[in-house]
Specification:
Layout: E1 4-9, H1 22-27, H2 33-39, E2 43-49, H3 53-62, E3 67-69, E4 83-86, H4 93-99, E5 106-109, H5 117-129, E6 133-136, H6 144-158, E7 161-168, H7 172-187, E8 190-200, E9 212-219, E10 224-229, E11 239-244, E12 247-252, E13 257-265, E14 273-275, E15 281-283, H8 290-304, H9 312-331, E16 335-336
Parallel strand pairs: 1-2, 1-4, 2-3, 4-5, 5-6, 7-10
Antiparallel strand pairs: 7-11, 8-9, 8-16, 9-10, 11-12, 12-13, 13-14, 13-15
Helix pairs in contact: 5-9, 7-9
Length: about 350
C-alpha cells in the first residue's frame, strides 16, 4: 500500500527536539512525531513547516529529501499532504494551516485542541466539514498496557474502584489534561468536578494563561479521583494511583513503572485484609512505543475504517472536564457535567 504523504507543522520539542535527550532515549524508543515518521511504513514524511530557520534546518538534517517552508502556504508539493501533524500551539492559526492542505485525509494534533472549548469545537467542526479524521496525541490511549487495563484488566486486578489520586505539573491544560483523559479511559466518565483551594499561575508554564489547581473528580459511579498539582521545579511526575476493592494499581515515573499491589491477609490484625504496598507486582511498561502505536491506530482507521483510539470527540470531552475545573476554581462551587 502506498504510504500516506505527511507534513509536520511546528517543528519543536514534541515534533523532534525530545529525540536529542539521551536520558529519554534509554526508556522511549519513540519520543517524537519525526522519529515515528522516519520509520513507519504507512507514512511518508514529505514536508515540514516552521517559521524558525533553525527548526527547518533541523528537519532537513533529519530527512534531507523533505520540503520545508516558513508557512504552510509557502509549500509547493508539500501542500499535497494527506496527513497533517499539527504540533503547533493551540490557537486560530491552526485553522489557517489546515486550510492550506486541500487533500487532507487526517490530522494528528497535539493537545489541547484549543485554548477554549469554543476554539476546540471550531477546529473539530472545520475537520468534520472536510471529512478529515482527527487523532489527538493523547498517547496513553494507544499504549498497549493501558489499553489492556481499560479493556477489563484493571477490574480483574483491583476489583471495583474505591478511590484514586492523580498528580500532574506544567499546567492543567497540559499534563493535567493527560491525567483527566487517562482517568476517563480507565475509570469511566466524570460526572462532576470541584476545584480544591486556589488556582495558581506559576511562571514558565508551557501554555500561556494556563493554571495549576487541585480538584476532586466525581465519576459517574459516584466514586472520587483526586487531582493534585506538583511543582516541577522540585521534581517531575505525571502519575495515577488507583485503589480498588481487591488491590491497588499505580502508574508512576510517567508510566515507565506500572505496579500491581494485591490484597492479602492483614499483617497487623487478625481477620482483616490489607493491600500489600511493599510487594509490587510489576506490569510490562510499553510507553516507550506508545507514539508508534498512536500512528498505527491512525493508519488502521484510514486503511480499514477501524475506530480511532484517541478521536477528537473524546479529547473534547476531556477538555470540557478541564474547563469545568477552571470554572469551579473561579467560582468556588462544584460543576456538573450534563
Amino acid at each position: 500500500m502506498t504510504p500516506y504523504r505527511t507534513c509536520i507543522a511546528g517543528f519543536g520539542k514534541i515534533a523532534a527536539g525530545y529525540a536529542a535527550d539521551p536520558v529519554m532515549a534509554r526508556h522511549y524508543r519513540y519520543t517524537t512525531h519525526s522519529q515515528v515518521l522516519l520509520a513507519h511504513p504507512r507514512f511518508a514524511w514529505t514536508a515540514a513547516v516552521d517559521p524558525a530557520p533553525d527548526a527547518r534546518a533541523s528537519a532537513t538534517g533529519m530527512s534531507p529529501g523533505i520540503e520545508t517552508a516558513a508557512t504552510a502556504t509557502d509549500l509547493k508539493a508539500g501542500r499535497n499532504a494527506e496527513i497533517l501533524v499539527l504540533a503547533t500551539p493551540p490557537g486560530p492559526a491552526r485553522l489557517d494551516i489546515l486550510a492550506a492542505f486541500p487533500k487532507l485525509k487526517a490530522v494528528m494534533v497535539e493537545k489541547p485542541l484549543g485554548r477554549t472549548l469554543d476554539e476546540a469545537r471550531a477546529f473539530l467542526d472545520a475537520c468534520a466539514a472536510r471529512n478529515v479524521l482527527v487523532q489527538v496525541a493523547l498517547w496513553r490511549r494507544a499504549d498497549p498496557t493501558f489499553r489492556a487495563l481499560a479493556g477489563g484488566g484493571l477490574r480483574q486486578r483491583i476489583g471495583a474502584l474505591q478511590t484514586g489520586h492523580a498528580v500532574y505539573g506544567n499546567g492543567l491544560h497540559n499534563n493535567g489534561l493527560h491525567m483527566v483523559d487517562m482517568i476517563r479511559m480507565l475509570c469511566g466518565e466524570i460526572a462532576a468536578v470541584q476545584a480544591i483551594g486556589p488556582a495558581t499561575a506559576p511562571e514558565g508554564l508551557p501554555l500561556p494563561c494556563d493554571i495549576q489547581v487541585d480538584a476532586a473528580l466525581t465519576l459517574a459511579n459516584g466514586r472520587n479521583v483526586f487531582l493534585s498539582a506538583l511543582d516541577f521545579t522540585a521534581y517531575r511526575e505525571v502519575g495515577l494511583d488507583l485503589w480498588g476493592t481487591e488491590g491497588r494499581l499505580a502508574f508512576l515515573q510517567e508510566g515507565l513503572t506500572v505496579s500491581h499491589f494485591p490484597r492479602g491477609p492483614n499483617r497487623a490484625m487478625s481477620g482483616e485484609r490489607e493491600v500489600a504496598s511493599d510487594t509490587a507486582q510489576p506490569l510490562t511498561s510499553t510507553v516507550g512505543e506508545a507514539f508508534w502505536h498512536l500512528y498505527d491506530d491512525l493508519a488502521a482507521a484510514l486503511d480499514t475504517g477501524a475506530p480511532l483510539g484517541s478521536p477528537g470527540a473524546s479529547a473534547l470531552a476531556s477538555e470540557r472536564v478541564i474547563e469545568e475545573i477552571v470554572q469551579s476554581a473561579r467560582t468556588g462551587v462544584p460543576r456538573t457535567l450534563a
